[in-house]
Amino acid sequence: MSKIKNASISIYEALNNIENGKYVMPAFQRQYVWSMGQIEKLWDSILLDYPLATFLFWHLDSDNTPLDTLFCNFLKEASFSNKKNPDSKNYELSTIKDINITDTAVLDGQQRLTSLYLSLIGSTYIRQKFARKKLDSGIVAKLLIELNKNKQSIDDDEYNSKKYDVKFTEKIGKVSPTQFEIRKILNERFRNKETRNEAIEEAIVCVPPDSKNYAKGIMEKLCCKIYDEKLIQYTEISDMTQDDALEMFVRFNSGGKALSKSEITMSILEVYWPSAKTEFGEISKIYGFNTDFIIRTALLLYGNVIKSVIIKQIAEDLKNNWESFKQSLTNLDCLLEDIGIDKERFKESWNVLLPIIYCIYYNPNYINDKAAIKIYLVRAILFTYFQSGTTSKLQKLKSNIIKCNCRITLEMLDQITELKVTEGKIDDILNSEKESRVAKEALYFLSSNWLNKNFKYELDHLHPSSRFDKSKPDFMTVQDWDLAKSNRNRLANLHLLEGSSNGGKSDMSLLEYYNNKNDEQKAIFREQAFLPQNVSSLLQVRDFNVFYNERRKLLRNKLIELLTLDNTI
């Protein structure tokens, strides 16, 4: 159970913590993205007594921080374009050398803390228009505040404008004597309350008499905001793993466009393997797998899929075995084609393929188990195995596969309660309705031997649903009619029909639709729609309940065979 502590410190204390190496950032943090204008408004907000918002800290210790965990160090210098936008610069990465000194990772607040640090301690540069993006080609810029209220160059009427004249300038030689360089506030004489008033008087000596009180008020407020007030209010969480920290970062990250967990995990992976994104892009083009799927596959193959953080060892294993990894995806494609299942069906449920890849990767004789692998796929989909608790179920499957010498077998599947075939699960499939994915998938798997992958198929009623909104047929009791209406949308009255054919059929009665076919077409239709042998006598809607029960029995046997390679359970 994580421990939570709420506390606050001054800006000066926070910056000292950065300077002394107490604070770092997780490797999944983004680059520094604030412009000089945002830094100027941050200081304006501080002087206007606006809160800085709460910071989120992660307390590091030897129990939750492996020795090889990489962290980002705070920027000590930054360059900005001539338009004062930040140059792209990656954080410096390192491991923690002394956990007794470096014990805090900033999860939320890195942009604000970095901005404060660059303003008061670090170095800022403005890169000229045609200069290369290097710090040594930039001109030093300093953050100034105008103390003469008569010389302020701000627009008080502009919405969200600064109320104080705080701005960066690279024109150091042209600084007005009434402009104060904010970083000078760190002089010991300002920090010490006994010498503070004297230091302030010296700082405003060039300010005209009618602005003295204004200038003195600004200087006193700066000292108070930096040294006296506890403006850095933070929540610190202890006893938290890196995986927990990543989850929390995803939830609470609010700066700019929110990042997904896979995007953040990719940024961690790139720390260890700079070309990872390029390699993943090639995989996506060839196989259609997204970044999240590749990362989760790597976690399953080389680590623990319950964890969502790529650690150094997993990254190195993936990088060093990349060709074998890609070959396993090629083999997966071939296997799915061999067992007659279209990979595209799993675009919304890639997770179901991960255990198969594990077998392919670690078992060179995986092809001998292709029948059991197909049964696993069908059971996992029709029993909605991955509807919840995905990661724990993947880890459970991995453990069972390892026990079976990296094989998927029927015996192994039957040992997992959620994947074992039972009468109840068969009934659930048979009771699935037209709107459910299970109904469509059941008919897809049952029909895979004749479906044309170039056609789009739709789920259609055999006896049209609209007929049950009309009057009760003759020779049918009210009770039987109510039963028929309640079953009209269930699997035993559904079949797959190619899109254009479905449009042509529309609300045509089953009797008319069947009789419009020639003998050869009728035979094909009976086979593909899984119709009872005596269907010709059961095509009228008044015979719906008999038709429904006969077809339900037929589908039940077909499903059992599909799920077990047998006709009994």
- Strand elements, count: 14
Largest sheet: 7 strands, mixed
Unreliable sequence segments: 131-135
- The portion of residues assigned to helices is 40-55%
- Strand order, sheet with most strands: 1-12-3-7-2-4-6
- Alpha carbon gap, first and last residue: 44 Å
Strand content: 5-15%
User: What integer is the average pLDDT?
Assistant: 87
**SS content category:** alpha+beta
Please give the domain count. Answer: 3
Describe the protein in words.
There is one protein chain. Helix 10 packs across helix 13, helix 12 crosses helix 13 and helix 13 runs parallel beside helix 15. This protein is 44% helix and 12% strand. By secondary structure, the chain is an alpha+beta fold. It is built from 23 helices and 14 strands. A seven-stranded mixed beta sheet has the order 1-12-3-7-2-4-6. Strands 5, 8, 9, 10 and 11 form a five-stranded mixed beta sheet that branches. It folds into three domains: 233 residues, no CATH class; 161 residues, no CATH class; 135 residues, no CATH class.
Topology:
Blueprint: E1 3-9, H1 11-19, E2 23-26, H2 36-47, E3 55-59, E4 70-72, E5 77-80, E6 93-95, E7 104-108, H3 110-120, E8 123-127, E9 138-146, E10 166-169, E11 179-181, H4 188-191, H5 193-203, H6 212-228, E12 232-238, H7 242-252, H8 261-272, H9 276-287, H10 291-302, H11 312-320, H12 322-338, H13 354-362, H14 370-382, H15 390-403, H16 410-414, H17 423-430, H18 437-447, E13 457-461, H19 478-487, E14 494-498, H20 499-505, H21 510-515, H22 519-528, H23 544-564
Parallel strand pairs: 2-7, 3-12, 5-8
Antiparallel strand pairs: 1-12, 2-4, 3-7, 4-6, 8-9, 9-10, 9-11, 13-14
